[in-house]
From TrEMBL:
Pfam family, one: p450
GO molecular function: heme binding; iron ion binding; monooxygenase activity; oxidoreductase activity, acting on paired donors, with incorporation or reduction of molecular oxygen
UniProt entry keywords in alphabetical sequence: Coiled coil, Iron, Metal-binding
Protein name in the entry: Cytochrome P450
InterPro entries per UniProt: Cyt_P450 (IPR001128), Cyt_P450_E_grp-IV (IPR002403), Cyt_P450_sf (IPR036396)
Keyword Metal-binding set for record: yes
One GO BP annotation of this record: sterol metabolic process
Coiled-coil parts of chain: 307-334
PANTHER family: CYTOCHROME P450 26, CYTOCHROME P450, FAMILY 722, SUBFAMILY A, POLYPEPTIDE 1
Organism: Stephania japonica
Top-level division of the source organism's lineage: Eukaryota
Residue numbers spanned by region Disordered: 406-430
Length: 430
C-alpha cells in the first residue's frame, strides 16, 4: 500500500516537474524570440489546452470574447500570440496588417475555422471551404442568388415581419430586444432561404439553431452535459429537418414558383453571367443553408439590438433618422418598403455602419498563414492562425476621431454602393 502511494507521489511530482520545465522552457523561448524581435510576445499557456479555458470562460462571461483579447493586448502589445483550441493564434490590431491579411485571402492567408465549427455547420459549408476554387465556387453561387429582384422580395418580407413584431410589442409590457430581433431575423432568413413560415416546425428549428450557435465557441468536448454535445445533437435534428424539406421540394421543383434559395439551387437557374449553376448535393445544400441561417440571423439581430441602444442614448441622431424615414414614407406610394425606398436612406445607412463600428458584432474571422511571413514587424510561422482584433481597430483614436462617440456622419458611402463593394466580407472593417 505504502509502495503504491509512494510511487503515486513520485509519478505526480515527475509530471509536475515536467510541466514546470516545459513552461519555463517555453517562457524562455518566448522571451528569446521577443528580444530578437522575431515572434510576437504572449503566453502559450498549459500543454495541450493552452489558454483555451481562459478564452472560453471570457466568452461565456458577461465581459465576452474581447475581454480575453484586450487583457493580452494591454499586457503584450498590438500583436500578441496565444494558444487556443490546440493552435497558436496571433491577434493583430494594426489597420495595415488587417488589410494585408484580409486582401491576401488564399494567397498567404486562408480561412481557418476550427474543426469543431466544421462538425457543427458541416464540412461542405462555405466557412469550411479552405481551397480557393472551392470557396470561390460556393461564394459565386450564393451571391448570384442575391439579385436585385431577390433582394426586393426579401426587403418586403423583412418589412412585413418587422411591422408584425412592432404591433405585437405595443400590447406587451416588456420586450427583450435581442430575443425579439433574433425571432424576426430567424423568420426572415428561413423565409428567404426555404420559404418556411411561422409554424411549430420553424420554432423547433429555431431552438436547434440556437444550440448549434452556442456550441460554436464552446469548449469542443463531446460529453453528454457539454454545450458542444448539445450542439451536435441539435445539428443532427436540423440535418433531418432540412433533408425532409429538400426531398419535398425536389418532388415539386418544376412546378414550384417559390422565390427562395432552395428553389434557386435545385432548379439550376442561370447565374447572372450566363453558365448554369453546378448541381449541388443535398449535403452541400443542408450545410450552406444552416450556415446562412446562423450567419444572417445572429449578426443582423445583434446589429439591430446595438443600434436601438445607441439610438436611445443619442436622441439627436434618433430625431434625424426619424425625419429621414418620415420623408420617405410621405413620398412612397407602396404599402411595403421597396428597394428604391431603401436606396434613399442615406442617413439610416450611416447609422447602421456606425453601430457596426461601435459594436464590432463579428468578433472572429480567423485566417491561417500558408507560409512564414512578417506582420507588424514580427515573424509569423506557417500554420499559425491570425485573428484581426476588429474592436481595437474600430475604437482606435488614430483611425477614428473621438472613437467612443456615436457619430453616424463619419461614414459617407451610399448604402447600395457599399453593399456591393463589401460583398459580405469586409463590412465590419472599414
Ligand atoms: C449586420 C449583419 C452582418 C455582419 C456584421 C456580417 C459580418 C460578416 C463578416 C465580418 C464576415 C467575414 C468572415 C470571414 O471573412 O471569415 C462575414 C461572412 C459571411 N457572411 Fe456576413 N454579416 C452580416 C450579415 C449577413 C447575412 C444577412 C448573411 C446571409 C444572408 C451573411 C452571410 C455571410 C456568409 C455566407 C459569410 C461567409 C463568406 C465567405 O466565406 O466568403 N452575413 N459576415
Amino acid at each position: 500500500m505504502l509502495a503504491i502511494e509512494f510511487s503515486l507521489v513520485h509519478a505526480t511530482s515527475l509530471v509536475l516537474l515536467c510541466l514546470c520545465f516545459w513552461r519555463i522552457g517555453r517562457w524562455k523561448s518566448h522571451d528569446h524570440d521577443h528580444s530578437k524581435g522575431r515572434a510576437p510576445r504572449g503566453s502559450l499557456g498549459w500543454p495541450l489546452i493552452g489558454e483555451t479555458l481562459q478564452f472560453v470562460a471570457a466568452n461565456n462571461s458577461c465581459k465576452g470574447f474581447y475581454d480575453f483579447v484586450q487583457t493580452r493586448r494591454i499586457r503584450y502589445g498590438n500583436c500578441f500570440k496565444t494558444n487556443i483550441f490546440g493552435k497558436t493564434h496571433v491577434f493583430i490590431s494594426g489597420t495595415k496588417s488587417a488589410r494585408a491579411v484580409l486582401s491576401n485571402d488564399f494567397c498567404i492567408f486562408s480561412k481557418s475555422y476550427m474543426r469543431s465549427i466544421a462538425e457543427l455547420v458541416g464540412d461542405e459549408s462555405i466557412l469550411c471551404a479552405f481551397h480557393h476554387e472551392q470557396h470561390q465556387l460556393l461564394r459565386n453561387v450564393l451571391t448570384s442568388f442575391f439579385s436585385v429582384e431577390a433582394i426586393s422580395v426579401f426587403i418586403r418580407h423583412f418589412d412585413e415581419l418587422t411591422k408584425k413584431a412592432l404591433h405585437s410589442w405595443e400590447k406587451r409590457g416588456t420586450v427583450v430586444v435581442l430575443e425579439e430581433a433574433l425571432k424576426i431575423t430567424f423568420n426572415a432568413m428561413c423565409k428567404m432561404l426555404m420559404s418556411l413560415e411561422e409554424s411549430n416546425e420553424l420554432e423547433m428549428l429555431r431552438k436547434d439553431v440556437a444550440q448549434v450557435f452556442e456550441a460554436m465557441l464552446a469548449f469542443p468536448i463531446n460529453l453528454p452535459w457539454t454545450a458542444f454535445h448539445k450542439g451536435l445533437k441539435a445539428r443532427k435534428k436540423i440535418e433531418n429537418a432540412l433533408a425532409n424539406i429538400i426531398n419535398e421540394r425536389r418532388r415539386v421543383v418544376e412546378y414550384s414558383n417559390e422565390q427562395d434559395l432552395l428553389q434557386f439551387l435545385l432548379s439550376g437557374e442561370k447565374s447572372t453571367n450566363g453558365p448554369l449553376l453546378p448541381s449541388f448535393t443535398d449535403k452541400q445544400i443542408q450545410d450552406n443553408i444552416l450556415t446562412l441561417i446562423i450567419a444572417g440571423q445572429e449578426t443582423t439581430a445583434n446589429a439591430i439590438t446595438w443600434m436601438m441602444k445607441y439610438l436611445d442614448e443619442n436622441q439627436d441622431v434618433q430625431e434625424t433618422l426619424r425625419d429621414e424615414q418620415l420623408k420617405i414614407e410621405e413620398k412612397s406610394r407602396a404599402s411595403s418598403l421597396t428597394a428604391d425606398d431603401l436606396n434613399k436612406m442615406s442617413y439610416a445607412s450611416k447609422v447602421v455602419k456606425e453601430s457596426l463600428r461601435m459594436a464590432s458584432i463579428v468578433p472572429w474571422f480567423p485566417r491561417v498563414a500558408l507560409e512564414d511571413c512578417k506582420l507588424e514587424g514580427f515573424k509569423i510561422r506557417k500554420g499559425w492562425v491570425i485573428n484581426i482584433d476588429a474592436k481595437a481597430i474600430h475604437l482606435d483614436s488614430s483611425v477614428y476621431q473621438d472613437p467612443t462617440r456615436f457619430h453616424p456622419p463619419r461614414s459617407c458611402q451610399s448604402p447600395i454602393a457599399s453593399w456591393r463593394s463589401e460583398q459580405g466580407r469586409e463590412h465590419a472593417l472599414e
